[in-house]
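ingest -> validate -> predict -> emit
validate: passed (alphabet ok, no gaps, 296 aa)
predict: started
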Amino acid sequence: MKLYTKLLRSELSAISKISDICPLDKSRIAMNKMGKALTFRHRKCVSYKDVCLAELRAEYIIPRSLRHDALILYLHGGGYVLGSMDYARGFGTLIAAETSVKVCCLEYRLAPEHRVPAALDDAYYTYRFLIKSGFPPERIVLCGESAGGGLIYALSLKLKAEGCPMPRGIIALSPWSDLTLSGSSYEFNRANDPSMTEKRLRFYAESYSGQLKDPYVSPLFGDLTKLPPSLILAGGHEIMLSDSMSLHEKLLSCGCVSTLHIAPEMWHVYLMYNIAEAKDGFKKINDFMGELFNER
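emit:
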């Protein structure tokens, strides 16, 4: 591990300890500042356009050089309690810049003010809006990190239940697929993950829902048959590693196509940071997109 990465890991550990005792309003401010920093770093690579949704905020993030006419619907992380458009725009900008694909990012409603199914309803409404606006579902890819990574699978389950056309593929970055926190990595990675803690995750889960085994809350417990191909990326040291591993295994057992990449010694949503491992992760995302759309 390079010196810069080691220093970054140390900084994340210090921030994580503060986050565990930080009031919700302050945590929201901090996360939005992180999003603004991501936007600033890649702002010259993209342009922005408002999406005309009824009562929701959403934006198109358009790379200066488009790879093809696909669209990524990106749902942000934050434990379902953090993340405004400032954060969603930031991570969405990173995705658009690294993939050269148009991104739609959404500011869905947050808990505890809006518990389940508010976030899922907002995601479902946005997906349907995109199709009605002329984006064919076979050109749409769902992408999300952390809670957003779980939400894209909940959305897929709802689309299947409602008989809606499915997207072309799914890209999940450190997805939170089991809000019961039952995976073994909550033990074996407890001291390894510098960026996330079980205490914080339990607060997020309790804020979001009282039915943590509901498949629309924890998609790991759902019927995952007939879902589109998935790419799942996770850090080898993250406390939520089991969520990615179990989700991948469940997808395979349900007859779905799924690829899991675990980056050794990396933490939760490591692709957010300007490190070599993140560049490798985005290369895997671009390769996956190329396979989905038969690029040569």
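The chain has one domain: 3-289.
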